[in-house]
Amino acid sequence: MKIEISRKMQNVQASAIREILKMTSNPDIISFAGGNPASDAFPVEDLKRISAELFEEDPIGLLQYGITEGDAGFLEAANKFFNREEQVTRAVDQIIATTGSQQIMDLLTKVLCNEGDVVACEEPAFLGALNSFKEDGAVLRGVGFTKEGELDLAQLETTLSIQPRPKFFYTIPNFQNPMGTTMSLETRKQVLALCKKYGVLILEDNPYGAIRFTNEHVPSIKSLDEDDMVIYAASLSKILAPGLRLAVCIGREDIVGKMVVAKQGADVHTNLWAQKVAARFLSTCDMNAHLSRIQAIYKKKCELMLKTMDETFDQRVTYTRPDGGMFIWVNLPEGSDVLKFAKEAIENNVAIVPGISFYTSEDKPCYALRLNFSTPTDEKIVKGIQILGQMTHQL
């Protein structure tokens, strides 16, 4: 019996990163391809202790159904945490718990977009977001970056002005995935002004903001927003652990309220045990010490990778120097065959992700690749980068 796949799923491809990661099950492979947090950054003992305490206090409360919006204690603790450096929650906002920030992308697209509607996004962009928007039937319109690594504001204005106008603009301003770059304060202000001018909402995704290890905090677009233009996605995957599948969405009630209705049909509510564990962690543990420990781990790994790249890469190769996050974006000489480079890297037991995976269309020229520094050990970082460095001299 032949089964016909829906039109909206026919245009969605399996994640190139996930496909590459399948090959990394080989212990001989050094993987710079993933985006997992460093395993030694997980607060394992605290989470074990808190979970045991909660099961002792109220086991039924952990195991029963919860409400779709999220556990009140978790929402209060998360709201306090994500407002610790700046005011992201306004009086008109609603905050809800979601099953990871990926669900925020899915729910917002379901609420705002009919099939064929346009979503604008920075390009290159987080692959998970691109696939989520496509799955919900959106047409993607990419906005590139300047040579200086800033969003191309002229291109953004053109993209926002073209009819049909986008339903929203998606961006990761802090330590962008895949590039590792951080949007300047002035650019954030201009993005907000342009989206206000053309009546286009902003989905600001901030999964890496808490793992800044160099330079000063830059205010979020949400904290600058006085016109309720921004929907804010804040994940706990990089702060606590991705296995919790826990994030919060903060935004205007008329939109977020509809996302709650959509979530009821998706998964009823986010894991209640995870919410209660996270609430206790956020409200009782020393978050400054916890974040400082994570930042130190990532800073050391990033600096080691950059130092080894400086020593071994061909001078024609350029790359970003992130202030936080997990990724370095590498630009090979123009005309390089990045797919061939990635294939040869695997043959040399090193896994990387070709940059074209992060574009709205594979037809666009791309000579870049993404490296992840959070997952591999120090020894594997040095060995793997030395191998890639030798390969760059053969381009």
Automatic annotation (TrEMBL):
Give the transmembrane ranges.
none
* GO terms classed as biological process: alpha-amino acid metabolic process
> Where does the Aminotransferase class I/classII large domain lie?
28-385
Q: Would the keyword Transcription turn up in this protein's UniProt record?
A: no
The record, for InterPro entries, names:
Aminotransferase_I/II_large, Class-I_PLP-dep_aminotransf, PyrdxlP-dep_Trfase, PyrdxlP-dep_Trfase_major, PyrdxlP-dep_Trfase_small
Write out the coiled-coil annotation as residue ranges: none
A Pfam family annotated for this UniProt entry? Aminotran_1_2
**SUPFAM superfamilies in the cross-refs:** PLP-dependent transferases
Keyword check for Amino-acid biosynthesis, yes or no: no
Keywords of the record, alphabetical order, are: Aminotransferase, Pyridoxal phosphate, Transferase
Q: Which cofactor does it need?
A: pyridoxal 5'-phosphate
For this chain, the family text in UniProt reads: Belongs to the class-I pyridoxal-phosphate-dependent aminotransferase family.
Q: How is the quaternary structure described?
A: Homodimer.
- In Swiss-Prot or TrEMBL terms, this protein is called PLP-dependent aminotransferase family protein
